[in-house]
């Protein structure tokens, strides 16, 4: 895959992911806003019902109070009686219609302790109405005339007339009485709660009543201050002209939880799917980058492998051509030297192929690692003997510092020897000049620990993260500056993992590296 195509695919995937997440977040935001608006409408309707109930109840209670006062007083301060009489006579049919009405107006002067007004009067107006229908009856056989008379009477209260005086008294009552005497905190709290429950709002709330000038009253729930951003208000008390006198403010401390709880299931489901999309995208992007990296590493590996094989093949060909030379074929010493050269180069190629096959078999679990009780100090000594000639050839030094008390572990002698050899060869490979290597051993309650320290070129943090990956090699410009295929340390990690141990590296550029292997004791 080309670099441009790779960037294009990543860009398109990123745009798609951002678009999907944006749409989901937009939908979630709309759902929350819709829920907020619905909650606001329900609260406003509830507060409207609260206002209506308070005003109706106040008017009803005042009316009952006035009626009770007039009933208790009994006699009015003064009264007036008005009589009205209407009569109609039909001479043709000899009928007479009579309507009589009597009005009693009783004036009750309200006491000053009732409304703090010594000139306020309310009226009780009652009346009686009489209807008369008289008809003259005179026949042929009748010497004297007779009359037929019908009479209907009823009494009633004239509330329409009384209402004018009641409204006047009620208006003065509203102006003079403090709001906390017109309705109690307990009563207001109960009414608000009942109206909210009717609309399925069963939340804790706080309230406060304020005058139209913004002054606080004694009607409030504990310590309450107006929250204009998160509160709801509604006018609750009016004067006789219908103008607002007071406003009710209500806030809900757990409003956000209530709103989110209504859409919590679909909200969590959306967030779950968003998370799946992000994970799938991240995984896909990781796999793309990883495959691209593996492709580059394999290309690098093939190039290195080709280079590594070309050299011994060329050497073998030159040796064979030399042996064919009539001047050489008769010289046994030179023939044996060229044959030994061919054997060494062939062994070198065989070792390289075996390394590749060994890693492949380990990946497929085709290598059975039989374990037995072994002494790790013996394994380390054996590995050092394998590399001592290489170290001596470069005029280097290797020092051991064995401090482990317990050294026996369950393991495979052959593979663990290769582990130590590979780490030692790695220290030689990345050391400039005369290599200096130190091998330390120690033991804990559960583990045998071996540390191999070199004073080589070291490695960066980025290299340390990938140093145990297959085919990975740190490059320094020329791809062939260090021989190898990036398989040795990968093999080390595989074998240590098979022994239920761990391997790690500590390194600093230009200072050196320390490889630590921990293996469980018996």
What would you call the shape? rod-shaped
Order of helices and strands: HEEHEEHHHEEEEHHHHEHEEHEEHHEE
Structural class: alpha+beta
Number of helices: 13
The Rg value, from CA coordinates, equals: 54 Å
> What fraction of the residues are assigned to beta strands by DSSP?
15-25%
Strand arrangement within the widest β-sheet reads 10-12-13-15-14
Poorly predicted regions: 476-482
The chain-level mean pLDDT equals 80
Proportion of helical residues: 40-55%
What is the number of strand segments? 15
> What is the CA–CA distance across the termini?
50 Å
Give a quick account of the main beta sheet: strands, pairing sense, barrel closure.
Answer: 5 strands, mixed
